[in-house]
Model the fold of this input.
Amino acid sequence: KGSGAAAFPAPSSRRWRWRCVVSFRGSLTLNNWYADFYAFQRPWPPADSDRGNATWCQGCLAHSGFAAAYEELRGPVHAALLDLSCDRVAVTGHSLGAAVATLAAFDLRAARGLRVERVWTAEGPGAGAGTSGASRWHEEAGATEGHQWEFPRDA
Done:
């Protein structure tokens, strides 16, 4: 349905109870590629959502396809993290998943109050406008550690 994006929440290990990792997959399907190219910017978080009056990101803009992909996954990701009793999370993604992970990190901290400990992205395009790239979004998300990698031969 929709963007066809996929997320994989999981507990990190028995030793680190209440810590979870959420991984967002890169582009794989035709719908994923459509989300990649649906590039006009829109207000984020969406005005018609439960976060429409959020004070934590006033005037923020995000890539429309990436924002739609995250909104499609948001409910199931939040539910899975609640089911797993997570209070701390690391967020990661590749390509489309990296952009979605950046939005997720921001939202999980601001809207859910989770402690976003780490954000790791690989080959991620910029998630939004009016920022200096993903690193700024990671900082704004309150991540204690954020990394973005780029690989020269990745398409």
